[in-house]
Amino acid sequence: MFPYVNAATIRVLALAGYEAVIPKAHQCCGSLMVHGGELERGRVFVRETIDEFERAGVDFVAVNAAGCGSVMKEYGEVRDISQLLADAPLGGRLRPLPLTVTYHDACHLAHGQRVRQEPRKLLRAIPELRLVELQESDFLVAAGRSGRAVPVGVRPMRPAKAEPTAEPAGAAA
């Protein structure tokens, strides 16, 4: 979907000393099917994906999509890229980035994989970057799923986040 993200991931992993191995038969990992309720069909894709990486002889699978990682972690040695890079010897290799940013936890990363601190640690390692914590960053916003499915144990979206930022056209009288 966003091939430049995968290319950037490979470059950053190489910078950190990792070799990226992409099996020739690589396909969708099946997590979208699992998240959409097609559990059996999705698990077939997940299992095939894990088998491909095992045949390739990799030490672990690095994932840069939280939804994929949350499903694949059930099947083997899978790590989010932030987990790999948070402790990587990147010192002196990162260019200054004079920005103030915030970080919103990806639901599948924070809740599905319990990965919260590593992305922040990685951002704090960037020279001149100022990280400002987003208040209530762990509330479910239901992005991408249109609020159709709320996993057990996750609080529903707070009304303040659900309010539109501007009045719809023609609403003011």
Q: Count every helix, treating DSSP H or I runs of 4 or more residues as helices.
A: 8
Largest sheet: 2 strands, parallel
- Provide the succession of SSEs: HHHEHEHEHHEH
What number is the mean pLDDT? 78
**How is the quaternary structure best described?**
single chain
Strand content bin: 5-15%
- In helices, the fraction of residues equals 25-40%
Low-pLDDT residue intervals, each spanning 5 or more residues? 144-159, 161-173
- Which strand order spans the largest sheet, edge to edge or round the barrel? 1-2
Number of domains: 1
Distance between the termini: 42 Å
Global morphology: globular
Total number of beta strands:
4
Q: Structural class of the secondary elements?
A: mainly alpha
Radius of gyration based on Cα positions = 19 Å
Explain this structure to me?
- The strands form 2 sheets. This protein has a two-stranded parallel sheet with strand order 1-2. A two-stranded parallel ribbon has the order 3-4.
- The chain has 173 residues and is mainly alpha-helical.
- The protein is built from 8 helices and 4 strands.
- The protein has one domain.
Kindly summarize this structure in a few lines.
With 173 residues, the chain is mainly alpha-helical.
Structural descriptors:
single chain; 173 residues; mainly alpha; two-stranded parallel ribbon; 4 strands; disordered C terminus
